[in-house]
Write a structure and sequence with these properties.
Strand content of chain A: 5-15%
CATH topology of one domain in chain A: Dna Topoisomerase Vi A Subunit, Chain: A, domain 2
Distance between the termini of chain A: 70 Å
CATH class of one domain in chain A: Alpha Beta
Structural class of chain A: alpha/beta
Helix content of chain A: 40-55%
Mean pLDDT of chain A: 89
Shape of chain A: globular
Radius of gyration of chain A: 21 Å
Order of helices and strands of chain A: HHHEEEHEHEHEH
CATH architecture of one domain in chain A: 3-Layer(aba) Sandwich
Number of helices of chain A: 7
Low-confidence stretches of chain A: none
Oligomer: homodimer
Chain lengths: 198, 198
């Protein structure tokens, strides 16, 4: 054995991270042990705290250290405008990019029956309950336009129908600053179909 | 604030890993919290243990949980054949690829005065002491053929000269600019067999 068991365990454990294969894991392990033990210890501590203390907001399902997250408990947020996002990263991107002052529902995934992800796993019952409460006037679907995303968006819009809520979704087309030649044909086709008067 | 402080701290802490930028860090954090809390907790624990318990072997400088590593304390290893490698990943690659039954010296870097890495940082004093002890008959330099690697190899061969030790290096089967740890074992084996006088 040329590597100590503990080092092998560390390299193996680092691979729980998506995008980290055996080679990256070795590189990370050697770097942390050789150059950055202080930060490695900090990472270990924060990771433990996060796993132990971060739960989900009872209302919107976003990660939260408290039963109700900071957005859901903020009285200045509009209660009649709800944005449905797939995950906390999208929520952060939305909240950072636009002056959205409504609230959120975080799906934490997309409908994918083959992977065992059904309406229950995405908190659809909780979302339906919020619609039933009657405060929401508009629901914006900020869901990536993949096949599973389309199915998820369709499911939600059908669910919202009986409640007379206005359901909208993010516009699709050419991204700002995007080079036309580097866009995929799906995006170009969609942008052409949805072309507007100049 | 759309993300909890603890989650932000976790994303920031994950970035201590080389090759992990802000986007990967978010993806990793969400993945671990949403799908793999058990493994995340395991990683935190192993990382803490590794930082606290993994030191360096007194003799070869490789990572070790004990004062003397498993290779240096193995009596079946030849004491007259020493392989000098840059890091533990290269040591593991060498030991895995070829039937090398000697011992190692792990530099943990290359000579790079601009980065403040001099002979002392690479344990050259320890290496010189081992040469002085007189047991070593041959020293194989398994150092990547970069500019800094060449300088390092030259330094070591000069240092070994007074002791009458045979200094060899891996054959020119190693591609220029290639990192040893990314080579296939066949190439490494061949390079070892064809090692030449320095």
């Amino acid at each position: 054995m040329s590597i100590t068991p503990l080092l092998e365990q560390l390299i193996e454990a680092l691979r729980c991270q998506p995008g980290v294969g055996p080679r990256s894991a070795s590189r990370i392990a050697f770097h942390l042990l050789e150059r950055d033990r202080h930060k490695a210890l900090h990472l270990a501590e924060i990771l433990r705290q996060a796993v132990e203390r971060l739960g989900h907001c009872e209302q919107c399902r976003n990660f939260s250290e408290t039963p109700l997250c900071s957005i859901c408990s903020d009285p200045r947020r509009q209660s009649d405008l709800l944005c449905v996002v797939e995950n906390p990263a999208q929520l952060a991107a939305m909240d950072h990019a636009i002056h959205f002052r409504g609230r959120y529902h975080v799906l934490m995934g997309r409908l994918s029956p083959l992977d065992g992800i059904g309406p229950e796993e995405l908190g659809m019952d909780r979302l339906e309950q919020r619609l039933r409460e009657g405060e929401i006037k508009e629901m914006v679907l900020a869901i990536s336009p993949s096949v599973e995303g389309e199915v998820t968006a369709h499911y939600i819009s059908e669910m919202a129908h009986p409640f007379g809520v206005r359901v909208t979704r993010l516009a699709q087309g050419v991204p700002m600053g995007g080079e036309l030649e580097s866009l995929d044909s799906g995006t170009l086709t969609r942008a052409f179909e949805l072309r507007r008067e100049y």
